[in-house]
Amino acid sequence: MSAETVEIDDGELIRRSAHDPEQFAALFDRYAQQIHLYAARRLGAQAADDIVAETFLAAFRRRGTYDTSFALARPWLYGIATTLIARHRRQEERLLRALSRTGVDPLPEALDDTVTRRVMAQGRDRELAGALALLPRGHRDVLLLVAWEDMSYEEVARALDISVGTVRSRLHRARKKARNVLGDEEQ
Amino acid sequence: MNELKEFRRNTPAMTDNAATAAKARLMTAIHEPEAARKSATSGARRFGWRIAVAAALALVVGGTVVTLRDQQDMATVASVTELGERAAGAAENDPTPAPGPAQWLYTKELQLDGVEADVDRDRHATWERWTSVDGKRSAWYQGGKLMFQGSAVFDPAALANAPVTPAGVIARIKAAILDEDRRGPQELNGQVPPQILFMEINQLISEQWLAPEVRAALFRALPTIKGITMTEDVPVADGRRGVAFSLDDDGARQSLVLDPQTFRYLGTNSTRLQDRTHERADGSKETFKAGTVSLTAQLEAAIVNQPGQRS
């Protein structure tokens, strides 16, 4: 990555990548780690490895449709990642239910990881997992992008290609449904 | 919301290997858009590889070659030297903590023999083995009992003595092979042929825990061994395909196959390049046809506390 690409914003990088595709690689360096963490929290590290790779492949292929007036590509990339995570919805829900039922994080480590790392979840985590498992997926997407990724309503709307009003109502309903475990405070 | 913010927050970060592999796929798409488009259809590859094992076996039962699986996307590796360098880099960046000296490496391997063109000769088996981290003992189940074998040829700790260099590691392995030959068959006359050296390195990489710097030095040394070349798109026993260090010897090609993205060890491939007829002691003959293969695939590799344990 050249010094120049560090300074220019995502939108400009994507615009330049139309005739200089190599520029697109800088986006990977900026966002791969955080998208991996998000996907791994939802599906486990192994699935996240694939999701990160496929997110950037899909983004690269679709870069022509990006509105380069948006300086930050983060919501767009999270939107692609969230769509890919949706393919594994059943896996995510199984995982959350198992965590809720047993208190043992069932995520396997990567194939060749030598230490089996199973975290005994706290009681509250078990309740949270149970609550998340029961949410409709669209509601869970909104809730986790706000809670984990600190995205604004506008960013979530861009990521998921829904209106800001829908973001608000989904978040409201997700919190209401899970109120007993997520706490009563509104923010 | 605060508790939700913390939920599963201690999830480990992406490994360097995963990041390298993911970025390599992006760079392939950037440099070869057509190849990347094709690969988009094989998305859930790693999720599905256990299923792929079953599929590969089903093909074998049907008497077909195992090479029918979709070709997966390959990170471009230009030369055997680059393959050595990238595999070494992956070994050096492996985040797996070092095991204790009393622990064991458990490996499970799928073995497949004589796949091409002869249904009756197709054989497959899984082979589980435990090798002590100190290299002194190995064990496997036989007739329901765990059997132990004594010391291996190599002392992994001695291989890891500083300085660890590619040439130095090769010199130590050659010395050990010659030492064993002197005490045993005495057929080498002080010279270790490339095929014996390659075979020993194969065994070390597939069955023995090695310090990351030793593993890296071995990968850097392989391209320096006379006759070793790179072969792409080489299948292993469970249908995965990879990029390989290969050595042609006596009408057959032996390959040590690595994952094309992560450069982790996948398995081995031995392919007969020319027909060969063996004459048995009783005068009968058996011909092994060109194309006959013998494949292995590493299905599991884990550090465990005792032989017999699998996780």
Tell me the layout of helices and strands.
The complex is a heterodimer of chains A (187) and B (311).
Chain A: H1 3-7, H2 10-17, H3 25-43, H4 45-61, H5 74-86, H6 89-102, H7 123-134, H8 137-147, H9 153-160, H10 164-177, H11 179-182
Helix pairs in contact in A: 3-4, 3-5, 4-5, 5-9, 6-7, 8-10, 9-10
Chain B: H1 2-6, H2 16-31, H3 33-39, H4 49-61, H5 80-92, E1 104-113, E2 123-132, E3 138-142, E4 145-149, H6 156-159, H7 166-183, H8 194-207, H9 212-221, E5 228-235, E6 241-249, E7 252-258, E8 265-272, E9 276-279, E10 285-288, E11 293-304
Antiparallel strand pairs in B: 1-2, 1-11, 2-3, 3-4, 5-6, 6-7, 7-8, 8-11, 9-10
Kindly describe this structure:
The complex is a heterodimer of chains A (187) and B (311). Chain A is mostly helical and 187 residues long. Chain A has a domain at 1-87: Rna Polymerase Sigma Factor, Chain: A (Orthogonal Bundle). Chain A has eleven helices and no strands. The radius of gyration of chain A is 18 Å and the shape is globular. The termini of chain A are far apart. Chain B has one domain (10-304). In chain B, the strands form two sheets. A nine-stranded antiparallel sheet of chain B has the order 4-3-2-1-11-8-7-6-5, covered by helices on one side. In chain B, strands 9-10 form a two-stranded antiparallel sheet. In chain B, helix 5 (80-92) runs antiparallel to helix 9 and helix 7 packs across helix 9 (212-221). Chain B is globular. Classes of the chains: A mainly alpha (187), B alpha+beta (311). At the A-B interface, helix 3, helix 4 and helix 7 of A face helix 1, helix 2, helix 3 and strand 11 of B.
